[in-house]
Design brief:
homodimer, 312 residues, alpha/beta, six-stranded mixed β-sheet, four-stranded parallel β-sheet, 14 helices, 10 strands, globular
Chain lengths: 312, 312
């Protein structure tokens, strides 16, 4: 992929621009000047559409396979529908009905797999052997994913005079790697700090160890978009030299982030999307008095979960 | 006020642009092509800031009195703070603490009045006699309010090729009168349909009667922004000849509108803000197959109320 390719998507209006929201009451509560960059209104409700579309548009294959229980599946289905391609998303058999329905609503095929018998990744590999002309897409470890997410970095770059630093969620690392890539391509040195669930702190441990460290199992954090074993190696190559730090966020601070966004910024965020707010709650002294752009990565959370989060 | 005055506010970036959200899944559910125009991220979380700022900036008085239990109070407090003016907002003594706190957070003074002894309007009149140099502001019956809200109409006019008609909530009528004024000033004949709670259907009855008809008492609708006795006479002068119709919306459809915006558009709306969605649910045949712009007028709803709405 070339820089021209993603500039062309931007020109064509493929991606919805991120929604910037100045949040003075919320910022006052947190002791910062706060700008939110919300991807909750992106196509399919999360930043994942940027990566999925960029990938689906850039590969020659017309059939794409992926394992996803969440936002990437919806994003890929929507992207393929727009591009006249097909996709098959492998999801755990006990996925929430709403998530399965969402992938199908965007025109994606779904295969439910009993993950106690065969892992999703194994099942995708089986399918890849059955469909040798298919492309297997990774939700977070592919240069095309970084390039897609870099379009958000370029949008932040255009507003970068308004803030000192960017805080964004980290799971597999595709978002933060994309933000750094996009900001630097636009000539901006703005520091990017990642916000990671304490329960799934493999990226923080990796940064301390100087090499990729994996979780033993998929961590049971509220932030389901960060339930990964480890950062992708393509992302790591960007993140290790360039990330300005990682804040580890407790489950309580993730939930409090969801509530504060709801109450003081009228924003519906999914728990993963509230990680950046949670980082400001976790280490207030690190951010106090600064101008911070918090990326809210997505808004896809079902009503029952959200009700429980609001109750606290 | 002149057309130049509000163009100048727009130029200065006083108002945040409305957030347009294409909502294909929600539109599909409702059988329409749907564009949302969300004022939930406007300063103070509702369109009322447009009217409040325009009024506060246009009058010579530096002290403004108003009765408001809701969004207008916050909006006026915020507008006055920005303009270096003072305001006093009279609120019922049993107002939700969060609403009182919000007015104070924006720098407004609050007087709590026992409305079983003296109505808020009477108390404002008493205060006006005590403060002869103060301006008494109406939340919805003043040409300056219409002109302020017309700035939203002008924003819709710039996108009017994308939809056949506009649906917006009606309470006192300031929003719909402003939308019509702004659209027509920009040369757009786009029809505007009002969405009114069935429990508070004075505007619908007024349109049928050909004169302003009032409710006997403040109606107990979920849509607290529409709890008024009747439309303002300045608004009526705009609405009677120009409004394309009024849809009366049940409480169940208001609540369903809140849930659908949450689930299929990631939008946190207050019940009044969901009235336009409720109108599409109430009269689906009227809208089926059309391109509709639904104005979501505000997002200020507390967590407990929202949790109850999500439960259904």
């Amino acid at each position: 992929m070339s820089a021209n390719a993603f500039r062309s998507f931007e020109r064509e209006g493929v991606f919805r621009p991120t929604v910037f929201i100045e949040a003075p009451r919320l910022g006052e509560r947190l002791g910062v000047k706060l700008l939110l960059a919300s991807e909750t209104f992106q196509h399919t409700g999360s930043f994942k559409f940027r990566a999925a579309y960029h990938l689906a548009a850039s590969v020659p294959e017309s059939f794409i396979l992926a394992a996803s229980s969440g936002n990437f599946g919806q994003a890929l289905a929507c992207a393929c529908a727009r591009l006249g391609k097909r996709c098959l998303v492998v999801m755990p058999h006990d996925s929430a009905a709403a998530k399965v329905e969402a992938v199908r609503a965007y025109g994606g095929a779904v295969e439910l797999t009993d993950t106690s018998k065969v892992s999703r990744q194994e099942r995708v590999e089986q399918l890849a052997r059955e469909h040798p002309h298919a492309r297997v897409a990774s939700a977070y470890d592919d240069p095309l994913v970084i390039a897609g997410n870099a379009t958000l970095g370029r949008e932040l770059a255009a507003r970068a005079d308004d803030f000192d630093l960017v805080v964004a969620p980290i799971g597999g690392g595709g978002l933060t790697a994309g933000l750094i890539t996009g900001l630097r391509a636009a000539g901006r040195a703005t520091p990017v700090i990642a916000a990671e669930p304490l329960l799934a702190n493999d990226a923080a441990r990796s940064l301390r160890a100087g090499r990729i460290v994996a979780n033993d199992h998929e961590p049971p954090t509220l932030a389901d978009g960060a339930r990964v074993l480890c950062v992708g190696r393509h992302n790591w190559a960007v993140l290790q030299p360039s990330l300005a730090g990682i804040v580890e966020v407790s489950e309580a601070h993730i939930a409090e982030g969801v509530r504060l966004l709801f109450t003081l910024a009228n924003l519906k965020a999914e728990p993963t999307g509230a990680l950046s707010l949670g980082a400001l709650l976790a280490e207030p002294e690190r951010f106090r008095g600064r101008s911070v752009c918090c990326v809210v990565s997505g808004g896809n959370v079902d009503a029952a979960t959200f009700r429980a989060l609001l109750q606290g």
